[in-house]
Specification:
This protein is 46% helix and 0% strand. The protein is mostly helical and 121 residues long.
C-alpha cells in the first residue's frame, strides 16, 4: 500500500515537472515596465489619437518578440502603430480593426509568445 502511494506521488511529481518544461513563460512582467497608464484604465484608442493611452499601448506592443518592429514611445497613434495593432489583433483571432478597445487591451497585457501570421511587409 505504501509503495503504491509513493509510486503515485512519484508519478505525479514527474508529470508536474514534465508539464512545467512545456509550459511557455508568461510575459506577466511587461505591464510593470509600462507604467504610462494604470492597467485598470483601458481607454479606447485609434489612429490619430495621442497621449498616455497610446504610449501605454505602444509600450505593451513592444513586448512582442520576433519580426514586428518596436514602436517609438511617443504617444502618437500613427500608421506604423496601426499596422502592428492590426497584426496583434489577427494573431489573437480578433477583428483587425486597429481600434484598441477592451479585448485588444487584454491581449496587449497578455501577449502571445508566438504568432504564426507573418508580419506584413
Amino acid at each position: 500500500m505504501r509503495q503504491h502511494r509513493l509510486a503515485t506521488v512519484g508519478a505525479a511529481l514527474c508529470t508536474a515537472a514534465a508539464l512545467s518544461l512545456t509550459v511557455p513563460p508568461v510575459a506577466a512582467a511587461v505591464p510593470h515596465k509600462c507604467s504610462y497608464l494604470s492597467s485598470a484604465s483601458r481607454p479606447t484608442v485609434t489612429v490619430g489619437d495621442t497621449g498616455v493611452g497610446v504610449q501605454q499601448a505602444q509600450c505593451l506592443s513592444n513586448a512582442w518578440g520576433g519580426e514586428p518592429p518596436k514602436l517609438t514611445l511617443d504617444g502618437v497613434f500613427d500608421s506604423v502603430m496601426l499596422k502592428k495593432i492590426e497584426w496583434i489583433q489577427g494573431c489573437h483571432g480578433l477583428p483587425a480593426s486597429g481600434i484598441i478597445e477592451d479585448r485588444t487591451w487584454q491581449v496587449l497585457y497578455h501577449p502571445a509568445l508566438d504568432c504564426y501570421d507573418p508580419y506584413p511587409a
